Amino acid sequence: MLLLVYTFNFLDRQILSILAQPVKASLALTDTQLGMLGGLAFAALYSTLAIPLALLADRTSRSWVIALSLGVWSVFTALCGTAQSFGQMFAFRLGVGVGEAGGVAPSYALIGDYYPANTRARALSIYSLGIPVGAAAGASLGGYIAQTVEWRSAFLAVGVAGLLLAPAFKWIVRDRPRAVAPVDQVPITHVFGILAAKPSFWLLAFGAAAGSMCGYGVAFWLPSMIMRNYGLGLSQTGQFFGALLLSGGVAGILLGGWLGDRLGARGRRWYALFPAICYVVGTPLFIAGVLAGSWQAAFALFLLPQALVYVWLGPVLTAVQHLVPAHMRATASASFLLINNLIGLGLGSWAIGSLSDHLAPAYGTDALRYAIATGLCLYLVAGALMALASRFLTRDWVE
To answer: What is the dihedral of CA 383, 245, 118, 103, to 10 degrees?
Structure first.
């Protein structure tokens, strides 16, 4: 059920990427404005509200917070289908972010309650499959609905589906009893103090933020690049992107969880070092795919790096869970997500869109392609920060 809710989380979050071109034409937007809708509009409140909602989940019921959050973001997703201007769409995307702020960190903590440390990376990886599955569903279903009916119907359809799921989730999912005193006796400043004193937290958070800035930016703009440079239609682009996310993304996440647990048993540093290696290996292949001469060559070149850049999820999320005692996990996860999402999700799509507008006078339809290729270098920054984090992780680990 957590996986299903996270699938809707990413479906609702990423559906705008496949609908970007018809939305742009309908609302008369620039690439910069589209980038703001894909990142900043969503991330502004999503990132900041995650911490108070995580505190609420730690102090009350994690399953209730997740169910209510699902209902809220589904309503605002449906409202996106009614937007008549950039301002209205921006406001509704803010609302989607408000709802989704209460979904992820409590889910991480609930998984931490259910699964022991030696299987937690695999459990978190299975949960994280919601990212490629949800994004792929948004691309495939959104593209099909938009081409068959119109883009507004796609937003309405997925929003209503999420509303129907919310009560079923709460009926099925139960909180686990916690064997510690109520966390409302632990001040939030105490949780922050524990994290702030650990170099591994900052390096993992900013490493993930650099990777996410690239990952979210590429995920948002890649469908538009495919349509502009390879001449594929909306439905074909949805199939291309959906197949890429499902094949590469699912393989990478499962590989990260399995190898993360195996390597982590030999040494805690591997929870950060293994993702670092994958980032560095995947970057040049990804750039080659963006610059490929045909969509067939691009798809083949994208498959391996698409898997490698998803490897970090299980290992790194497990490591963050072990930087604090068990009853502080949701708050610690939200603190990590604040940095990751405010920088990664908030700036990624906007930065690539702005660079594309800047390059357009010189490069025309290739401007977006070169903007994406430039942004992909952030994966190298992510790899370097993760490698540094591995030096401190064993010392900072809390069993």
So the answer is: 100
